[in-house]
Amino acid sequence: MAILILGLVLFLGVHSVRIVADDWRTATRARLGAAKWKAGYSLLSLAGFIVLVWGFGLARQNPVVLWTPPVAMRHVAGLLTALAFILLTAKDIPHNGIKARLHHPMVLGVKVWALAHLLANGKLHDVVLFGSFLLWAILSFRAARRRDIAEGTVYPAGTTGATVTTVVAGLAGWAVFAFLLHGWLIGVRPY
């Protein structure tokens, strides 16, 4: 469990700089230059992700069951992860109405993904992993909305075509991951 926690601290710590030290981030990025900042950020993120995955794999070998969720929660989780994929997709498709309305759909997607997995899993390592991501997403979304207000950020209106494309692409990505890749990559077949 300690390796999982170390990976979470490193990965989510890097991704929390804008939450806890946005002024420092801005000054450091200006001093180093965007390319060096992104390179360092990417390397630390990758290292954290590797340690996180390794730690999660180790923690799964000696599970501590906290509760056994009802089978229905798997179906609820399936619906919520479909929504999460749509939100994650909305980050990258320009002029969609989801991003126009929600402003930070990727962080909301992480929030929904983490909640879905907390509902469907009752082992300690699951609670540590998904609970950490849920807490991070809540804090990150709040910080991003505050930045938007402070900076007077205005998001362009979305179009119906881009919004439909976002939903279709998100659902397609979810289907591929849920029915094919999740079992292969994670070792758990949700369906």
Automatic annotation (TrEMBL):
Q: Which domain of life is it from?
A: Bacteria
**Localization annotation:** Membrane
Q: Name one GO cellular component term.
A: membrane
Q: Which residues cross the membrane?
A: 40-59, 71-90, 127-144, 164-186
Name by which UniProt lists this protein: NnrU family protein
List, for all copies, the residue spans of the domain called NnrU.
Answer: 3-190
Regarding the membrane, this protein is recorded as: Multi-pass membrane protein
Q: Does the keyword Nucleotidyltransferase apply?
A: no
Q: Which UniProt keywords apply?
A: Membrane, Transmembrane, Transmembrane helix
Major localization class? membrane
